[in-house]
Amino acid sequence: MLRLRFQAVLLLFTLAVLVPSAVAQTVIATVTAGVQPSATAVNPVTNTVYVVNSNCFNNGGCSSTGSVTVINGATNLPTATVNVGALPVAVAVNVQTNQIYVANECGTDITCASPGTVSVIAGGSNNTGSVQVGYYPTDVEVDSATNQIYVVNNCGNDNGCASAGTVTVINGVSDNTTNVNVGVQPYVAAINSVTNMIYVPNDCGNDLTCQSLGTVTVINGGNNSTSTLTVGAFPYGAAVNAVTNNIYVVNNCGSDIGCGSPATVSVIAGGTNNIQTVTIGNYNETSINSTPAIDAVTNQIYVPNYSDATVTDIDGASNNTTLVDVGNRPRAAAMNSLTNRVYVDNYTDGTVSVIAGTGNPVPLQLFSITPCRLIDTRSNGGPIPGQTSRIFNLPQLAQSDSPQCANLSSAVAYSLNVTVVPPSGGTLAI
Question: What is the 3-state secondary structure (H, E, C) of the chain?
Fold first, then answer.
């Protein structure tokens, strides 16, 4: 069999961005999921929504391993149920590979005496595989640009939870793993794929007695080195706006470890690590167990309010807030910026609320830019063998060249010229 090796040159000409219209947020549909849904993720390319069902009951523990409800985003109808591990609590999607990753807090053991696992679902077939991680994984996040998966292990390598947490980094190609030490009782992570930085809030900071303010461990995705920022009391949820490079961390108890203060959101400026604070509500009424969603195009942040059946919508430009009514015990939100839909899973109801954002849907508009060469593999990365692929982070490439290309952070589509250069000479443009 003849296997060719090609060099590639990517030249950018135009890009399409979302241009929002001013329409108030409202719930437009409620979709039935499984027992106690606890996390949601969206693949905007396939317009598919993945809802994790813990299959656990408040009075009887977990009756079986969990499942994932697959929802068609165009029709808002469930299309499949996929079985995963025990007590699944988080889900993330790699839009480049169409792989879905589900963190199972108890692995395959409903008694929770074993390390956790991550179920890997193939988006096309719904076939599954599994990767072992640390104890009590509570979140999984994907960097589609690097094909690295970050799993937050609340108890690190300690089944007794008497040690600090860890983050297991999974290579999306080989499934090989690396562990990174973080703070005490981490629950979630958020990734900026443009800067290749990962943000992990630690509920108890670096204090095993939990008598100190929380911290955020910042992981450099290039070499897994870490630094630490101090935020509010008992930080839980986190999300990143890659366009503004702002990181939003939900502090359950504001700035008071006695939990006598309203809940807040720490807004971290990724470039400087300066922090602003936004008050969003009372303890246990707005932020407990909540995972925010961000619309990077409209700069809106959606924070589920677990105990009062609402979602707080924060305007990223002004930090002003509004409330949207949803179902009972909303725990997590996920955003599809292409359709401008927010998906909020309601833990007690076993449903998903579908919120229309600031457009219905947001239209695309094409803009011409100065032609710019993004990459030439002859001097960067080498030839691409036949029957293989290579992932390119276009926004990152656009800012790494000298001179820099246009800022692509708000674009959702691109017009590219790809020139293929065989080793034997000659050029083929496609």
Answer: CCCCEEEEEEEEEEEEEECCCCCCCEEEEEEECCCCEEEEEEECCCCEEEEEECCEECCCEECCCCEEEEEECCCCEEEEEEECCCCEEEEEEECCCCEEEEEECCCCCCCCCCCCEEEEEECCCCCEEEEECCCCEEEEEEECCCCEEEEEECCCCCCCCCCCCEEEEEECCCCCEEEEECCCCECCCEEECCCCEEEEEECCCCCCCCCCCCEEEEEECCCCCEEEEECCCCEEEEEEECCCCEEEEEECCCCCCCCCCCEEEEEEECCCCCEEEEEEECCCCCCCCCECEEECCCCEEEEEECCCCEEEEEECCCCCEEEEECCCCEEEEEEECCCCEEEEEECCCCEEEEEECCCCCCCEEEEEEEEEEEEECCCCCCCEECCCCCCCCHHHHHHHCCCCCCCCCCEEEEEEEEEEECCCCCCEEC
Instruction: Decide: residue 27, CB within 10 A, 0-12 exposed, 13-18 middle, 19+ buried.
Output: middle
Q: Which residues belong to CATH 2.130.10.10 in the chain?
A: 23-356
Q: What is the pTM of this model?
A: 0.72
What architecture does CATH give domain 23-356?
7 Propeller (2.130)
Cα 48 from Cα 219, distance rounded (Å):
30
| pLDDT, position 21 | 43
Q: How far is CA 100 from CA 26, 129, 224, 321, 379, in A?
A: 28, 10, 23, 32, 33
Query: How far apart, in whole angstroms, are the C-alpha atoms of residue 412 and residue 139?
Result: 26
**145-184 pLDDT tens trace:** 899 999 999 999 998 889 999 999 999 999 999 999 999 9
**CB under 8 Å to 316, separation ≥6 — which residues?**
241, 244, 246, 294, 299, 300, 301
pLDDT digits (tens, 9 = 90+) for 34-52: 888 888 899 988 999 999 9
What strands, in cross-sheet order, belong to the sheet with 128-132?
88-94, 99-104, 117-122, 128-132
